[in-house]
Amino acid sequence: MEQNEYALRADGLKERLYRTACLYLRSESQALDAVDEAVYKGLRACHKLREPEYFTTWLTRILINVCNAELRRHKRELAVEELPETAAEEFDALPLRDAVDRLPEALRAVVILRYFTGLTLAETSAALEIPQGTVSTRARKALSLLKLELKDEEAR
């Protein structure tokens, strides 16, 4: 893939990538940095993309890896230093957001990509590098857990 074609296609995906990064990292500034980093890494590796029809899932996978690396780095930083309390952003207080955050990582990744980012079943499967059947199973399990969690929240 040529760099010019890459730049055009990546520019068209930036909004979707940003939404995905926001859901993973829970911070707008970190999400912007992650998208920039993923686009840069994709540009450096665009010559390795063998099948251009999988561009969206390929770049999403790069973004997920960048987000996971940032989360690991952030976890190490929190272990070393204690941060002062800060006010939570408004959208973090939503019951759905809290419920999604409490899901196991494997289920949370499927929910974020399928329902918040809008990837198809096949795209989610390719982005997470798992079979489509596994994506379907994890999505059903996550939705049932979210339903139970939100009913419990509503009852309180």
Folded structure, characterized:
The model is unreliable at 80-92 (pLDDT under 50). This protein has helices at 3-25, 28-45, 55-80, 95-102, 105-116, 121-128, 132-155. Helix 1 (3-25) packs across helix 3 and helix 6 crosses helix 7. It is built from 7 helices and no strands. The protein has 156 residues and is mostly helical.
SSE run: HHHHHHH
| Mean pLDDT over the full residue set | 84
Radius of gyration: 17 Å
Main structural class = mainly alpha
Terminal residue distance: 54 Å
Low-confidence segments, given as residue ranges, are: 80-92
The number of distinct helices, counting runs of at least 4 residues, comes to 7
Q: How does the overall form come out from the CA principal axes?
A: globular
Number of strands: 0
